[in-house]
Amino acid sequence: LKATRYEVTDRVARLTLHRPERRNAWTGRMHLEYRWAMTEAEADPDVRVVVVRGAGDSFCVGADARALEGHAERGAYDDGLRGAEPPMPPVERPFAADFAFQLGMRTPVVAEVNGAAAGVGLAVACFADIRFAAAGAKLTAAAPKLGLPAEYGLSWLLPRLVGAGRAADWLLSGRVFLAEEAASVGLFSEVVPSEALGPVVAERARTLAHHVSPASVSVTKQQLWGELLAGDPASSVRRSVELLREMTQGADFAEGTRALAEKRPPAF
d(Cα 120, Cα 99) in Å, to the nearest integer? Predict the structure, then answer.
């Protein structure tokens, strides 16, 4: 790995965007490694949660400016991979694209936005299931100021996360906004001082890794994002009843009920 770091410790996979000298600017190489690491995490039965973060004091400032200059000179996009096809976790068709595949994974993805997130960096964070940010972190869609469209499905996702009005403001203006504003409309679960961000995310990851049922998390992710795509209230209720009947026969339910009766944490 050259542009990222990947490690698994105590059921938590940590995927770090690692070009701190360029504020973790996105490149074709980083794209390849990012998808490889996500595919590894999804295939590893020991991984219960993936945490995505940036090295240094930035999350990801978007596409590398030098690469953008090259694209403009050539009059075409060049990812520099020379035909190498990045892997992708096996997900259902509606999620099978960048970075939508994160929503289709069985494994929850947590974004630790430790600093500036722009363009593709914002998309990476938005397609996480849960997001936390450092106080004062600067965010921007960036695309309007580069003569580009809304990137990587943000035009579909942001209205569903923060409402159409705020999404239009951010996507059409390309203005810089702070993590605090984003949290006020629901984009972040919590905004904390930068020195506290790592411990806060680590504690949330530990909860997902050790104190909730992996079967429940996987199925609930399917319900959450699948029903957002094509659901209605009655179908959601009927499907939840079907899943309830199925999962009450499972090992996780048996352990959860034993733990509740014995007044101890469950051991999934």
Answer: 9
For residue 114 the two structure tokens come to 């430790």
What is the per-residue pLDDT across 5-60, written as a single tens digit (0 to 9) for each? Answer: 999 999 999 999 999 999 999 999 999 999 999 999 999 999 999 999 999 999 99
Q: CB-based contacts of 249: which residues, under 8 Å, 6+ apart? A: none
**How would residue 70 be classed by pLDDT, with cut points 50, 70 and 90?**
low
pTM: 0.90
Q: Which of 133, 121, 243 is nearest to 185 (CA)?
A: 133
Beta-ladder partners of 110: 51, 130
- For the chain, state the CA radius of gyration: 19
The count of C-alpha atoms lying within 13 angstroms of the C-alpha of 81, restricted to the half-sphere facing its C-beta, is 14
CA distances from 263 to 142, 156, 255, 260 (A): 50, 43, 12, 5
3-state helix, strand, coil in the chain (%, to 5): 50, 15, 35
* Closest residue by Cα to residue 106 from 95, 116, 98: 95
